[in-house]
Amino acid sequence: xxxxxxxxxxxxxxxxxxxxxxxxxxxxxxxxxxxxxxxxxxxxxxxxxxxxxxxxxxxxxxxxxxxxxxxxxxxxxxxxxxxxxxxxxxxxxxxxxxxxxxxxxxxxxxxxxxxxxxxxxxxxxxxxxxxxxxxxxxxxxxxxxxxxxxxxxxxxxxxxxxxxxxxx
Length: 168
Fold this sequence. Notes:
By secondary structure, this protein is α+β, with helices and mostly antiparallel strands. It has a single domain, classed as CATH 3.30.1330.60. The protein has helices spanning 2-21, 48-53, 77-91, 110-130, 155-161, and strands spanning 65-67, 98-103, 138-144, 163-167. A four-stranded mixed sheet has the order 1-4-2-3.
């Protein structure tokens, strides 16, 4: 009887060892490592991904032109980020002369477009001042429709011409 028990014990051990030799691969779901997101890229208050989603590749201060919707002087979020970046840069520099050139597309009368270009430039100037541009002398100029960057007569060209250029 001891031999039967010993035999059964040996068989059980062999089955156990055989089972241990076969390892099943079990897929274990793990959460991906959380990447560190810089939520204040270039001091903008936005992550690089957020800036790229707005069409801003790299430091917003590298952009010198902000664009406007048709018949509007309202500053869009993308433009606000760019203007505030220039304001921060200018805040650390004293005495730098800033010129804000307002432009329009060709639609509308000459007088209307000159006034709209002025409102756009003044809006940028107010935002720059509020965002800490410092005591730098700022001049706003409107060219209306007189200096287009795109000469075609279509929506694509008109959208490029509705702008304020930040010069310093």
